[in-house]
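Section 5: illustrative case.
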């Protein structure tokens, strides 16, 4: 299973990927940018800040200890490997009729 999240302008140090209780994939980050423009008679400073957070419930057959993530060309790619789905045999319990 692969998750793709747009992350333009973010560095990998600004993004945090965690697996909580082996069942929830949490992706969060913080962006801070400051742009200073100085001309002859004035100085302009633009600042922008923002936080984001997303959580995804993982399926039961996910392998949470083998999650990998990478940032490339402004896209965060998180890969969650899954084990093969094994269907448990239905549990059968005989009931005595009296």
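Designed sequence:
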């Amino acid at each position: 299973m692969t998750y793709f999240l747009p992350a333009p302008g973010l560095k990998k140090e600004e993004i945090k990927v965690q697996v909580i209780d082996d069942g929830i994939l949490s992706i969060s980050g913080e962006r801070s940018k400051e742009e200073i423009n100085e001309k002859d008679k004035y100085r302009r400073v633009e600042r922008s800040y923002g936080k984001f957070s997303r959580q995804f419930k993982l399926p039961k057959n996910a392998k949470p200890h083998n999650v990998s993530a990478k940032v490339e060309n402004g896209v965060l790619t998180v890969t969650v490997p899954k084990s093969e789905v094994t269907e448990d045999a239905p549990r059968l319990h005989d009931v005595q009729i009296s």
